[in-house]
Amino acid sequence: MRQLAPPPFQINPYDEAAPQGQFRDLLTIDNISNNRSITAVSRIPNSMEVWWIGRNGSIQGAFWYEGSQWQRYELAPAGSAARNGSIIALSRIPNSMELWWIGANGSVQGAFWYEGSQWQRYELAPAGSASTVGSITAVSRISNSMEVWWIGPNGSVQSAFWYEGSHWQRYELAPAGSASTIGSITAVSRVPNSMEVWWIGPNGSVRGAFWYEGSQWQRYELAPAGSASINGSITVVSRIPTSMELWWLGANGSVQGAFWYEGSQWQRYELAPA
Fold first, then answer.
1. How far apart are CA 182 and CA 95, in angstroms?
2. Is 37 helix (H, G, I), strand (E, B) or coil?
3. I need a labelling partner for 265 at 20 to 30 A (CA). Which of 10, 82, 125, 214 fits?
């Protein structure tokens, strides 16, 4: 159930101009945490939005519309987020955006925006539900549904799903000890009736789970112990409906990859050496 708490919303203009040869510094050292985390979406072709965790545990944001300058704002005040935690966003329909992050108390916090309205905040999971140094990810496989996954403080993989007209429903995807509490998690929906999730195991393995509409979640191991850095990152894309590609940081500092084509098994490779 969405528990609403309207956030403070203050817009600060940002000047895109910078001396020639210098990068524009949207995220200054004073307003972003050293270690984590940043996310972004483009809900329509002429706009972009970025959010990050501030040093003081606030949620900072910035938006851009074609022909205008970047505008910055604070979505959630100091102490709202775990400073070394994670943040994720998606846009399921062009006139809406959703954002989730790990709270300082291990809760899962969320915020949603609909065109013409202000941001509304809510708590998706209470204190102690998430690792404060763990990761969070989300997908929208169909326009009227969203799914979020995060690492629990006990190394479980926790999740919540939403269908338009219903409340959020939570479940456990993988039990305690399944995931590195300092590792990463990623997800994709390559076709509307399926979702896939991968995470780093506590032993440096790469573990996954897939779901097809009408079936239960199925879990598997994609890469054995020692294949991944337990505090490293993992990411995925699906360029066509019949294929997926996954990359992660190896325990030796390499970049490892795996690809899948419908009807075939996963194939692993090394993209960049140690």
1. 34
2. coil
3. 214
pLDDT at position 35 is: 66
Helices and strands in the chain: count of H runs, count of E runs: 0, 21
Query: How many alpha carbons fall within 13 Å on the CB side of residue 38?
Result: 13
CA 132 to each of CA 155, 157, 189, 244: distance values in angstroms, whole numbers, following the listed order: 12, 14, 26, 29
CB-facing half-sphere around the CA of 172: CA atoms within 13 A = 13
pLDDT tens-digit series, residues 58-68: 999 999 999 99
Count of CB atoms within 10 A of residue 166's CB? 11
pLDDT tens for each residue of 260-270: 999 999 999 99
Taking residues 162-189, report their average pLDDT: 99
Whole-model pTM: value is 0.88
Q: Please identify which residue in the block is written with the tokens 């900072």.
A: 60
Beta strands 59-65 and 71-76: pairing type? antiparallel
Residues 62 and 138: their CA atoms lie apart, in Å, by 20
